[in-house]
Amino acid sequence: MADLFHSAGADRIVSVDLHTGQTQGFSSDPFDHLTALPVFIDYLQRGIEGPVTVVSPDSGRVKLASRYARHLDGQVAFIHKRRRADIHNEVAALDLVGDVDDRHAVIVDDMIDTAGTVVAAAELLRKRGALTVTAVATHGVLSPPAVDRLKNSPIDDLVVTDTLPMSEDARLLGNLTVLPIGSVLAEAVRAIFRDESVSEIFQGENV
After folding, report:
1. Cβ distance 110 to 18 under 8 Å?
2. CA distance 5 to 31
3. What is the 3-state secondary structure (H, E, C) of the chain?
4. Mean pLDDT of the chain
5. Taking the CB of residue 75, how many other CB atoms lie within 10 A of it?
């Protein structure tokens, strides 16, 4: 995709929370990778009182969970999982590494697609004694059957940004919160045009 943008005449790319951060390295032209982390941190700090455990839904997001935990003064946990080979987009959550008993659990990810991973994680966290379960993800893809899964899930608060439009069915979810990210993008674009540091806006959390 980066090559297509460059071929079309773009001389700089700005993205928000890439699914695979290494993608940035394949671009020969300037590539700014932004993050919605400051938006989520502000929301979580205002909304959660008490001990917090930030949970990575798999071992690959532990670094992201650690970044959130630093800002929330919380612990880190991750879920060991495997995908079912016989059914597409089905996840079997196996075990939790970390402590959520009598704590507020915050699941962090870059996107929620069919919601199989986040719902399986939430169910496991509830079984392990979590007081509340909040799930945050930058991109709310919410492909079918995500809405149906989320309707019946133990997730207290599902928080996404407005990087993608929400379907009418998704907007009817009682536990859905959509946070605007326009101000973050505006600050980054302004810094780019002024030839200022984009990383300073995010205190280095966008790398």
Report:
1. yes
2. 11
3. CHHHHHHCCCCCEEEECCCCHHHHHHCCCCEEEECCHHHHHHHHHHHCCCCEEEEECCHHHHHHHHHHHHHHCCEEEEEEEEECCCCCCCEEEEEEECCCCCCEEEEEEEEECCCHHHHHHHHHHHHCCCCEEEEEEEEECCCCCHHHHHHCCCCCEEEEECCCCCCHHHHCCCCEEEECCHHHHHHHHHHHHCCCCCHHHHCCCCC
4. 90
5. 17
From the list 81, 64, 167, the residue with the least C-alpha distance to 116 is 81
CA 74 to mean position of chain CA atoms = 17
Distance CA 205, CA 99 (A): 25
- Which residues are known to be catalytic? 81
For residue 64, what are its two tokens?
Answer: 């992201």
Q: How many whole angstroms separate alpha carbon 160 and alpha carbon 111?
A: 8
**Amino acid identity, residue 89?**
N
Res 207: pLDDT = 56
Percent of the chain with pLDDT over 70: 89
The C-alpha atoms of residue 84 and residue 127 are separated, in whole angstroms, by 21
